[in-house]
Design brief:
Two copies of one chain form a homodimer.
Chain A: E1 3-14, E2 22-31, E3 34-40, H1 41-44, E4 49-55, E5 59-63, E6 65-70, H2 86-98, H3 103-119, E7 122-129, H4 132-142, E8 145-152, H5 163-176, E9 183-185, E10 188-189, H6 197-210, E11 214-218, H7 222-232, H8 236-242, E12 250-254, H9 260-268, E13 272-275, H10 277-282, H11 290-295, E14 299-302, H12 315-330, H13 338-345, H14 347-353, E15 369-373, H15 385-392, E16 398-403, E17 406-410, E18 413-414, H16 419-436
Parallel strand pairs in A: 1-4, 1-5, 6-7, 7-8, 8-9, 8-10, 11-12, 12-13, 13-14
Antiparallel strand pairs in A: 1-2, 2-3, 5-15, 15-16, 16-17, 17-18
């Protein structure tokens, strides 16, 4: 009888496999960080000898959700300021604090962000920030998967004296995390409006040299388009296409203000779009044509953006809001049904991570999964597991989270770090942010 | 030294009093179901001798939220069908089940709905359904406040042979719950399109006779307006005004498809609007002009609508979605700031209940409150309690809920009923609904 490390039993397993099978009274066998088997309990359980057996009872196991675009460190700014015009918010509340950042603040802010993601069933994220190695350090402490990279700007940041230094930092990260199991590196030009065509070309070259994907904010708002037209005589998507950026595997965040021609270009290049419903609503950026993109066969994932503009890192929140905002915007209650939305948060997320081992539970896939407690009153009764994930669950029903076959969260406890100590450290972070923002 | 029944201590108390004071390291003294005192711990604690003292530590006490429009029984249909055009959904999934309802199913469905509301910090709801006395029975079992009434239709329901029977049932409820502490009765004509002007007039007369408020779905969609114009030559608001309905204290649900002239009429009559962001998005009904209404000084509350079109009964979900949908719709990130949204869910809710003792924590107000655990990772760090309530909390951080000075929920346990037994009964309800919908 084959041996596995752990076997999980639950009332339901939502596999998100090719056939989107939802199994009732099912088991998931895990060996060497991979799914060894998934199927009806009566078939799987007798065939595997497990070192550890966990019966989750009335629970729903699902592939770990992927946060396809975030700045997880920004928890230290969560709720410091809201409901403000974008430029005033950035100039008076965000930038003054970010200019005084240190790697330690980024590490602690990120660890709290990763704690929130694990707490709500997210097992991987695509991250962009400054001092990104501190974000990786937090991900390592939390046990989360992370595709990250140093944000590249045309101007100096607290972390880098200029774009060359940021590219050099990305190169160092690429060397450091080559062949790392959970941590992977992307080239992260911040956006077309905070860089130059020369910087973007250097980013593309670095991505090609190290075979890295590229992650950039693109076409987030009408303002961005107007600035780009004024400065470069082209729309952002066309500019990126012409610079060869889209020839590299890309995760493009936002993609709100796009024309059908822009979408044709993006579809032709097989990019992955990270759609951020909450952030686009909170900042009044507009409605990304995600339903249209899916209809074109484009690959769309879901992200939270940073916690300063959300203010959560909760993919259940994003799933619900995605399903609802597109129904409203398209005036059609059948638009973006629950299964399409769950696909975005799982299989779409695997694309955004450029890692096909993620996003579904099938033999050979990464053993990244989580389990919801179905006895929560908002999940009673149960007719449709996918509907409950998208429309009814808050994410806080998560009882267990596994990454790479390792249980990293279970029933209020994180296995790799001391959460209470982190909460104490956040008090210092809070004092720093208030002082840096000139509030106290 | 004065005596009180219980004193709660917490890191923060969001009072929602006239001055919207947020108190740090504060205490709430409760006597005879009312707030006896609220203030800094150092001032309140030494002045009151408490029969019970509860230190909630790093928690945030807030006035119990009010769900201003719901059909709480409909948990038995949660997730049975989604993502469908409205009429197909109603005709193939909702109505066939509702035709076979019994008081027992309504009672159990409501109790699960009330369990979800308490679990997420809601202490009162405005409810409309059939077999409404079974809803009241559930509210009594849960300990929740409820303003309810039998839904009045022009046609027969499982509960009533016609509108006369529904009015008779409302009259009986009004007699039964006269002077009941937590349960109160409203006259509930379902809508203008499911009744007639004669029925609406009878509803108004009954409301005047018993001094009851009136609760109706109004101007929910463009379709409703068109049908009303065709049948009555008037828009729904004008029809209700002309029939004298708006002369009674009113809670009007939805109010999506309204003109500036409609809003003038509603403002002149001092009605309360129950805004339902999730339901309006999920059913693609449109955006109720809630920000405009608030600017006109109108009284706006927040509701979930029924769990079949949401699929939650979670006011935290509604607060977040309200804040975000109006920013997007108005293309202005400063629209509907967090404090306006919290006002809708608390003080606005008191108006919707037509009970001024609710919605704020101040001496003499009802001791209806709840407490959020601020150590949840999504609530770290803490800069602004109101921002956290609207943008960061999921509602599942609720640790304690008090209604009328009685603790009805604490740390996973309901004080008045057996939640595990209810979950078992939901299995029968589920089988009934599947059979009634013709699915199995």
């Amino acid at each position: 009888m084959p041996q596995c490390d752990v076997i999980l039993h639950a009332a339901f397993v939502v596999t998100q496999d090719e056939d989107r099978r939802v199994m009732e009274n099912a088991s998931l066998a895990v060996a060497d960080g991979l799914v060894a088997a998934v199927g009806p309990r009566g078939e799987v359980a007798p065939r595997w000898r497990a070192a550890q057996e966990i019966d989750l009872g009335n629970a729903l196991i699902f592939p770990g959700l992927v946060n396809a675009h975030t700045h997880s460190a920004m928890t230290f700014l969560r709720g410091l300021a809201d409901d403000m015009p974008l430029m005033e918010w950035l100039n008076t509340r965000i930038f003054p604090v970010e200019r005084q950042l240190t790697p330690e603040i980024v590490r602690l802010g990120s660890l709290m962000g990763h704690a929130e993601m694990l707490r709500t069933g997210v097992t991987a994220c695509v991250d962009m920030y400054i001092f990104e190695d501190a974000v990786f350090e937090a991900a390592r402490m939390a046990g989360l998967r992370c595709l990250g990279g140093e944000a590249v700007f045309a101007f100096p940041t607290a972390a880098c004296a200029g774009p060359e230094a940021a590219l050099e930092s990305t190169r160092a990260l690429a060397e450091k995390y080559r062949d790392n199991g959970r941590l992977a590196v992307a080239v992260n030009p911040h956006s077309v409006y905070t860089t130059t065509p020369e910087i973007l070309k250097s980013c593309r070259d670095l991505a090609l040299e190290y075979n890295l994907p590229l992650h950039i904010h693109l076409s987030e708002s009408r303002d961005e388009t107007e600035v780009c037209l004024k400065n470069h005589g082209k729309r952002p998507v066309v500019l990126c296409r012409d610079l060869g950026l889209l020839d590299v595997p890309c995760t493009l965040a936002h993609v709100v203000d796009v024309t059908p021609e822009d979408m044709d270009i993006l579809a032709d290049h097989g990019v992955v779009v990270a759609h951020n419903p909450s952030s686009n609503m909170k900042l009044a950026s507009g409605v990304a044509p995600a339903a249209d993109m899916l209809e074109r066969g484009m690959r769309v994932a879901l992200g939270t953006d940073g916690p300063a503009s959300n203010n959560r890192l909760n993919l259940f929140t994003e799933m619900g809001r995605a399903a609802l905002m597109h129904k409203l915007a398209g005036r059609n209650p059948a638009l973006l049904p629950a299964d399409s939305v769950l696909d975005m948060a799982t299989r779409g997320g695997a694309w955004a991570m450029h890692n096909p081992k993620l996003g579904s539970l099938a033999p050979g896939q990464a053993a990244d999964c989580a389990a919801l407690d179905l006895s929560a009153p908002n999940l009673q009764p149960m007719y449709n597991a996918v509907s409950h994930m998208v429309y009814a669950a808050t994410g806080m029903e998560t009882r267990l989270v596994m990454v790479d076959g390792e249980i990293v969260y279970r029933d209020g406890r994180y296995s790799r770090f001391d959460y209470e100590a982190l909460c104490c450290e956040m008090l210092d972070i809070r004092r720093f942010a208030l002082r840096a923002a000139g509030i106290s």
